[in-house]
Amino acid sequence: MSAFDELMAFQRETQALGQIAGRLGWDQETMMPRGAAPQRGEEMAAMEAVLHARRSDPRVAEWLEQAVAPNEAGEAQLREIRRSYERTVKVPADLAKKIAQVTSVAQGQWAAARADEDVAAFVPVLEEVVALKREEGLALAAGGDVYDAMVEDYEHGMTGAAIAEIFDAMRPGLVELRAKVLAKPAPKGLTGTFDEAAQMKLTRKLAKQFGYDMSHGRVDKAVHPFCSGAGLDVRITTRTSETDPFNCFYSTIHEVGHAAYEQNISRDYLLTPLGRGVSMGVHESQSRIYENQIGRSRAFTGWLFGEMKDAFGDFGVADADAFYAAVNAVHKGYIRTEADELQYNLHIMMRFGLERALMSGDLAVKDLEAAWNDRFEADFGYAVDKPSNGCLQDVHWSVGLFGYFPTYTLGNVYAGCLYQALRRDVPGLDAELADGSTEGATSWLKENLQQHGGLRSPRDTIVHASGMEPSHAPLLAYLEEKFSLLYDL
Q1: In the 8-state DSSP scheme, what is residue 68?
Q2: Among 138, 170, 275, 443, which is 20 to 30 Å from 360 by CA?
Q3: Where does this protein have coiled-coil stretches (predicted)?
Q4: CB 482, CB 306: distance < 8 Å
Q5: Are 229 and 262 in contact (CB under 8 A)?
Q6: Element (H or E) spanning 228, and its range?
Q7: Is 90 exceeded by the pLDDT of residue 432?
Q8: What confidence score (pLDDT) does residue 187 get?
Q9: Span 158-181, mean pLDDT?
């Protein structure tokens, strides 16, 4: 067996173990008894110790030195294995294990603090998470910027400074457009209550409409919707609200975007470094284009209006045009995951600034709530009313995902580029969507982006699929056109 083949066999086992660890995380979010959290922390730490040992195994360095790639995909495999190995060996095994243990426990403490509206109960464990992640960042940065080292985990090739430049270019246009829209009368919303079982029935139909393969997946409920897994086992979660079915439906479509990416990657890459989404920004481009440009389009909402009428009867919206306006209503609110398409990125920009300050040491965890509340009121014009609508609303920091938040807006930027190319290449798109078919859109995305997995860098993935350099301009043009028409600006 060649060095390349030995390395790839070793990697398949490592990837398989990583999927098992991910399944533990899925179980923790969906079905695990609450009292099992301390034991699950030990289990996650044990898995992380095994994974860290494999990822930093000296044999990997030897195989990398000797391996000869048989083709372009093989060269990409070696590139990704080398990048992972070089990062892993910089982090001491004890530190990796400690982070896994503490973040597993912190996740449960975050959920309890959020339910109790008690920031003080969460501060001590978040301080521990931040300290551990800064220690990891210092090890990874090797004298460079700690936050850049964090971002590299989720969007390699991107830096905090580059992200700030993109965000600074976007923000004035978003703020100006939002001000114009909020000065207009709000569209009429839905009325009545919506049965949970009926929501879940329709949400599973929506998942299938967007190409989610239920023979290799499942839909469950969780506090925070997410997608988990890769290859042949990709699971999603959603949530329901008896007064807001859009929360359920669009959370589902969003997570199906993530899941479809994972399910559609070439089987040739199964359980290899290329057999997963190349970055979180590119991943988010799939969930956002599914949810927004496709799922919230005038064409598709016309079909969804009929489906909801069949499922729920009269819910206070007269016709498909009024329904389209309701789906895309710009409204005041606190929750990132419930934010309208126009204001969503402002939520991300706020979190980006706060977590960058936490990692640099400019912001202490004990001051996070006040900093959040001050920044929110400055950006959105009204005060946070309770912690679950403020700094306790997201799970990310409790599990150590620093550097993750900006990839949400990078995903929107990428989605803007992809949608421009999609409309160019699929001229009959609106007619298909009006019939409830997403086949033209999802097939285009599979062919041009999803099937390639991690073959190319994040930037090159977008360039290959869209034919253009990543830029915020298409996204801003799309938002300007859409909401100017919706609100008669």
Answers
A1: -
A2: 170
A3: none
A4: no
A5: yes
A6: strand 227-230
A7: yes
A8: 94
A9: 94
The residues, any chain, with a CB within 8 Å of residue 165's CB and separated by 6 or more, are none
Q: Tokens for 159? A: 């830096």
Rounded Cα distance between 13 and 54, Å, is: 9
Q: Using 50, 70 and 90 to split pLDDT, how confident is the model at 379?
A: confident
Query: What are the residues whose beta carbons fall under 8 Å from the beta carbon of 86, sequence distance 6 or more?
Result: none
**Three-state secondary structure along 41-107?**
HHHHHHHHHHHHHHHCCHHHHHHHHHCCCCCHHHHHHHHHHHHHHHHHCCCCHHHHHHHHHHHHHHH
Alpha-carbon span 112 to 3, nearest angstrom: 49
State the Rg of the chain over Cα: 22
Interval 232-266: pLDDT, tens? 999 999 999 999 999 999 999 999 999 999 999 99
Task: Please check the confidence at residue 41 and state whether its pLDDT lies above 90.
Answer: no
Tokens 């409409």 belong to residue: 209
Determine how β-strand 227-230 pairs with β-strand 233-238.
antiparallel
Strand partners, 236: 219, 227
Partnered with residue 219 across adjacent β-strands are: 236
Assess whether pLDDT exceeds 90 at residue 45: no
Two structure tokens written together for 310: 């069949």
What is the arrangement of strands in the sheet containing 219-221, beginning at the earlier edge strand? 219-221, 233-238, 227-230
294: pLDDT strictly greater than 90: yes
Quote the pLDDT of residue 338. Answer: 83
Both structure tokens of 233: 């086992």
Residue 282 token pair: 């590119």
Q: 136, 155, 255, 262: which one is catalytic?
A: 255
> Does residue 222 surpass a pLDDT of 90?
no
* SS3 call for 424: helix
| 255 catalytically annotated | yes
Counting Cα atoms < 13 Å in the Cβ hemisphere of 396 gives: 19
The three-class DSSP label of residue 339 is coil
233-238/219-221 β-pairing: parallel
Q: Does residue 337 register a pLDDT over 90?
A: no
Contact status, residue 412 vs residue 475, Cβ threshold 8 Å: yes
pTM as predicted: 0.92
Return left, alpha or beta for 72; rule: phi > 0 is left, psi -120 to 50 is alpha, else beta: alpha
When pLDDT is averaged across residues 323-334 and rounded to a whole number, the result is 95
Rounded distance between C-alpha atoms, residue 263 and residue 276, angstroms: 9
Q: What does DSSP assign to residue 291? A: I
Query: Token digits for 189?
Result: 């919303």
- Host H or E run for residue 233: strand 233-238
Report long-range pairs for 41-44 (Cβ below 8 Å, ≥24 apart): 41/100, 41/101, 41/102, 41/104, 41/105, 42/101, 44/100, 44/101, 44/104
**Arithmetic mean of pLDDT, 375-398:** 94
Beta carbons of 445 and 418 less than 8 angstroms apart = yes
- For residue 226, which of 5, 24, 30, 434 has the smallest C-alpha distance? 30
